[in-house]
Amino acid sequence: MKINIIGGGVVGCIQAIEFKRLGFDVAIYEKNNIGSGSTNSGAGIMYPLLPHLYDAKVYDFIQDSKTYYSFLNKTISELFDIDIEYFKSGMLVNIEDLKPLEDWLIKKKIEYNLKDYKGLTGIFISDVYQINPKKLILGLVKYMKYLGIHVYENQHIQLNTKKQFTDDSNNVIDGDKFVLTAGAWTSSLNSHLTGKIYPIKGQLIEFENTSQLNLEHIIYKDKFYLLQRQNGSLIAGSTLENVGFNEDLSPDDLMMLRKKAENILPELKKHKILNHWYGFRPGSKDNIPIIMQDSDNLNTFYNVGHFRYGISMAPATTKKLVNLF
Ligand SMILES: Cc1cc2nc3c(=O)[nH]c(=O)nc-3n(C[C@H](O)[C@H](O)[C@H](O)COP(=O)(O)OP(=O)(O)OC[C@H]3O[C@@H](n4cnc5c(N)ncnc54)[C@H](O)[C@@H]3O)c2cc1C
Question: Residue 266 domain-assigned?
Answer without folding.
Answer: no
